[in-house]
Amino acid sequence: MRTTVTLDDALLAKAAEYSGVSETSALINHALKRLIQSEAARRLAELGGSIPDFEPGRRNRVWGFEEEGEE
Fold first, then answer.
1. Cα-flanking dihedrals φ and ψ of residue 41, to 5°?
2. Residue 16 falls within a domain, yes or no?
3. Which end of the chain has the least Cβ crowding within 10 Å, N or C?
4. Distance between CA atoms of 36 and 24, rounded to whole angstroms?
5. Domain contains 58
6. Which pTM value belongs to this model?
7. pLDDT in tens, the chain (71 residues)
8. What is the H or E stretch that residue 24 is in?
């Protein structure tokens, strides 16, 4: 997708320096991916502990695989 944007040259240069990505399109794609990752992580963290009555289910043993020392 083609889009025309006006960017702060100093901001773009600093982002390129920190990320190691020098091509503008790649730098913007990189920045957008990082923004999405960061926001997704923040939203996931907000969900933590939000189910007060939750009790984890029983973990079943996988049959056919013996642990060390068992035979």
1. -65, -40
2. yes
3. N
4. 18
5. no
6. 0.62
7. 899 999 999 999 999 999 999 999 999 999 999 999 999 999 988 887 767 777 878 877 776 666 666 55
8. helix 24-47
